[in-house]
Structures are given as C-alpha cells and as structure tokens.
C-alpha cells in the first residue's frame, strides 16, 4: 500500500503542488460530511482539482493502482455519501466553482460542479430565469453534490427534483475517460440514458465535471400561508385532500407537535404549541392567479379542520412563515443528545397512514419522534431523538419504519441517498434488482475505486 507521503508527491507531480494536501489537519477536516454519526475513516490525501483534465489524471492514476477516490462537494450530505471509508483520495470540487454560460436563448446554464446552488439561482434570476431545485442545504450545497444525490427540496412538489433539470453532463469515468452524456437538445433518445443513471448515483459511477441545466422563466408572484391544526391527522389529511381538489402548491411543508414546540422554544416566533400539526403552503405563478390558488389551498385546510390560517401580505411576513420550517433542524437537536434523521417517502394519499404508523413504532420502542418535511410530495423526515443508551432500539425502530414505508408502496430515501448509512436497508426496497445495480457498477468501475462502500458493498 502506497504511503501518504508517496501518494501526495505523485499527485503533486500530476496536478500541481498547490492542489494537494497531506497534513493530518487537512485530512481530518475532510474525513466526514453532514452525517450525524461522524466519520468512518480518514483519507490519505485531499486534492482540489481545477479542471476536467485534473480529474482525468487523478482517476487514471488511482484506477491503475486500485486507490479509492471519494468525490466531494460541500460535504452537506446526511448519509455519509462524501465521507471516506478506507483511506484513499478525497477529491473536492470547491475550486471548480464557475458558472460558465447562461444560455438565455435556450433556457439553460452550463456550470461546474462546485458552484453553490443558491449562487446559481441568484445569478440566473438576474435574467428573469429560474432554477427550481431547492434542497434545505441550498445556501451551501453544490450543484455537483445535488446531482449526485438527486436532491429535492420544498419546491419539488410542483417543479420536480434535480434530475428533471439535468440535460447534459460532462463526466470522467473511473479509468480517466472524459465523456458527455445526455444532450443540450430538448429531446434525445440516442442510446442508453447514461445521464439519468449517473444522476443520483452518489459518485459511484462517474465524476461530474460540468452540468448543463434546464431553466424556466421566473414566476411573477408568490403567495404563502400557514395553517394550524389541532390534530396531526387533520394536517396529513389536508395534504391528501389538496391534491384531490387539483390544487398543486409550489411547496407544502409539514411540522408535527414536537417540531412546533421545539421551534417555538428555539425561535420564539409565536407558534401555537397546542397544535399537533402545521402546514406551510406556497403557490407561485402569474400575478393574476396566485391569490385564487392560495385561497383554494386555504379552503382545503379549513375544511380539513384548520383552526388558524396566517397568510403573508408581504415579503417579511412570508419570511416569518418560512422561519417555522427552516428553524426545525437547529431546534430539534436541543431535544436529545443524539438524532437519526430518515427521509422516507410515500404516495401522497398514504401520508396519514405513514404518520400514524410512525407514531405507533415510536410508542412501541418508547422513543421520541419528530416528523416534518415535504408533505406535498409525500417525503416525511422521521427523526428519532434519543439518549446514547437507546442506540440499539433506535436501530430496530428505523428498520420497522422502512419496512412500514415499503408496505405503503413508498421508498426508504426521498432525497438523502443511501451512502453508507442506509445500505443495509436497500435490499428491503430493491430486492433482486440489487444484483443488477452491482453489475452496472462493475461494468463502469471494475476496480471499484469510485466512492467504494457506498450504496452497497461489492
């Protein structure tokens, strides 16, 4: 096995001394991502390439020697997707951070993978254009990481997830081969759809070096409301009823009682702590129709049992409403020393069943559970808050949540991916197709150097 010193020197010769870091402090800094359970291993080297050519050289070198390579964006993932497991090379894209072209004629943008999602959104909005995907980490996560995880966010209920906006990728395969997959044209059925295979593959099949993303016109107007429900079942039912009534909100976010209480204790924004359910609803579109759209959504909530409705009249009130949702994550970490956050998703009509079942599982294991998330697309973040000595029963409860979710025709991961945290549960959902996934991995990365140990083990 090559030493850190020798590996660092080889990479310095390949891509330049200033792009390679081998000190213990640098290696420890890139040994983990946003996963609450911390890191699994420490890389041998951290590199900061600045071009596709740099990436090609790194992968060709690593592939010849069987050295693991761990692609990394901002490190904000929650399932360990960017964390190294067994030494190797962490390849950070933070210096590949240029927006290369905003194509107003064809409504597209060409970007490098290290561009922060929020920065890209603000840049295209200056031209009256709109990039909808908005994961909760959008102010610091990167486009490359979003593509690798097929990130979602509140707005995906109306606009779809990241894959719906990826038209073409420039990628480097494990052997260093550079290729383009997909097309800048609106339609293309030329061969296998490798582009969509790479989207959501968590850096295990290829390294993304450029992305051409679809844009749409920026909506003229936005309307936002908050609905308060005495019972959690009423809030869940309101979501299902909204779609039955053909009301398609831009976002429809859900908080349960533990979320509401935690946010109010944390942010002091005047939330009613008696409530068991809260929805943040947003619509957008032409100025002439948004008032009608929000009114329809509000009427559905009232019919479902909402006892209080707050509708924003200006941007400051809109931000105040969204604070209830955005403050959840920092608020709930104060409830217990440890947290495990799962992002299960079910068909929207099954949300009431999911919420009820999760509470029953939490009661069975005597655990605190906090539920919130993107109810508009059936994606609920189930958070078990626990003491260190409760670790084993939390693991059992998580497995039951996944099994129950599958029984509701749902998925064990709506947007966080599998990484190393969830790989033992993947067979619950994909069954025998797992072997076909492994066959694809072996075909594209026969030496298993790209993010090994993620999604499944070979």
Topology:
Elements: H1 4-15, E1 20-21, H2 24-29, E2 45-47, H3 52-65, E3 69-72, E4 89-92, E5 99-103, E6 108-111, H4 117-125, E7 129-130, H5 143-149, H6 156-159, E8 166-172, E9 178-182, H7 194-198, E10 207-214, E11 216-217, E12 221-229, H8 232-244, E13 251-256, H9 257-267, E14 277-285, H10 287-304, E15 308-311, H11 315-326, H12 328-332, E16 338-345, H13 351-364, E17 368-374, E18 379-386, H14 391-407, H15 426-430, H16 433-444
Parallel strand pairs: 2-4, 3-4
Antiparallel strand pairs: 1-2, 5-6, 6-10, 7-11, 8-9, 8-10, 12-14, 12-15, 13-14, 13-17, 16-18, 17-18
How big a fraction of the residues is strand?
A: 15-25%
* Number of discrete domains: 4
The oligomeric state is: single chain
Low-confidence stretches: none
* Total strand segments: 18
* Helix run count: 16
**Major beta sheet summary:** 7 strands, antiparallel
How would you describe this protein?
This protein has 458 residues and is α+β, with helices and mostly antiparallel strands. The chain has 4 domains: 89 residues, Uridine Diphospho-n-acetylenolpyruvylglucosamine Reductase, domain 2, CATH 3.30.43; 119 residues, 2-Layer Sandwich (Uridine Diphospho-n-acetylenolpyruvylglucosamine Reductase, domain 3), CATH 3.30.465; 110 residues, Alpha-Beta Plaits (2-Layer Sandwich), CATH 3.30.70; 93 residues, Alpha-Beta Plaits (2-Layer Sandwich). It contains 16 helices and 18 strands. It has a 7-stranded antiparallel β-sheet, sandwiched between helices. Strands 5-6-10-8-9 form a 5-stranded antiparallel β-sheet. Strands 1-2-4-3 form a 4-stranded mixed β-sheet, covered by helices on one side. β5 and β6 form a beta hairpin. The mean pLDDT is 96.
């Amino acid at each position: 096995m090559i030493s850190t010193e020798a590996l660092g020197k080889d990479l310095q010769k390949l891509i330049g001394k200033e792009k390679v870091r081998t000190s213990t402090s640098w290696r420890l800094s890139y040994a983990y991502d946003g996963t609450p359970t911390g890191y699994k291993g420490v890389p041998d080297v951290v590199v900061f390439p600045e071009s596709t050519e740099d990436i090609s050289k790194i992968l060709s070198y690593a592939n010849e020697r069987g050295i693991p390579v761990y692609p990394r964006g901002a490190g904000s993932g929650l399932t360990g997707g960017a964390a190294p497991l067994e030494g190797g090379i962490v390849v950070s894209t933070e210096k590949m951070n240029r927006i290369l072209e905003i194509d107003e004629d064809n409504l597209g943008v060409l970007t490098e993978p290290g561009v922060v999602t929020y920065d890209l959104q603000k840049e295209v909005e200056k031209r009256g254009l709109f990039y909808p995907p908005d994961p909760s980490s959008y102010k610091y996560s990167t486009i490359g990481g979003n593509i690798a995880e097929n990130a979602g966010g509140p707005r995906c209920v109306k606009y779809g997830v990241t894959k719906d906006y990826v038209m073409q990728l420039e990628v480097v395969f494990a052997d260093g081969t550079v290729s383009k997959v997909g097309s800048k044209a609106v339609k293309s059925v030329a061969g296998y759809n490798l582009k969509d295979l790479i989207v959501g593959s968590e850096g295990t099949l290829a390294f993304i070096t450029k992305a051409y993303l679809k844009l749409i016109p920026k909506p003229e107007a936005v309307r936002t409301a908050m609905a308060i429900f005495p019972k959690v079942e009423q809030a869940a039912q309101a979501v299902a009823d909204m779609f039955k009534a053909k009301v398609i909100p831009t976002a429809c976010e859900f908080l349960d009682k533990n979320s509401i209480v935690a946010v109010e204790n944390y942010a002091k924004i005047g939330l009613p702590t008696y409530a068991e359910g809260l929805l943040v609803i947003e619509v957008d579109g032409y100025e002439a129709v948004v008032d009608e759209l929000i009114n329809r959504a509000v009427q559905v909530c009232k019919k479902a049992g909402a006892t209080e409705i707050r509708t924003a009249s200006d941007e400051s009130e809109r931000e105040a409403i969204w604070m209830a949702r955005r403050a959840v994550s920092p608020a709930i970490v104060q409830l217990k020393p440890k947290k495990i956050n799962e992002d299960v998703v079910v068909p929207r009509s099954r949300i009431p069943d999911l919420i009820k079942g999760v509470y029953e599982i939490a009661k069975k294991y005597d655990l605190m559970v906090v539920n919130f998330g993107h109810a508009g697309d059936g994606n609920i973040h189930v958070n078990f808050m626990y003491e260190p000595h409760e670790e084993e029963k939390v693991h059992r409860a998580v497995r039951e949540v996944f099994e129950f979710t599958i029984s509701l025709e749902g998925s064990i991961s709506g947007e966080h991916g599998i990484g190393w945290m969830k790989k033992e549960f993947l067979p619950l959902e994909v069954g025998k197709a797992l072997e076909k996934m492994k066959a694809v991995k072996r075909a594209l990365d026969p030496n298993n150097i790209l993010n090994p140990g993620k999604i499944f083990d070979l």
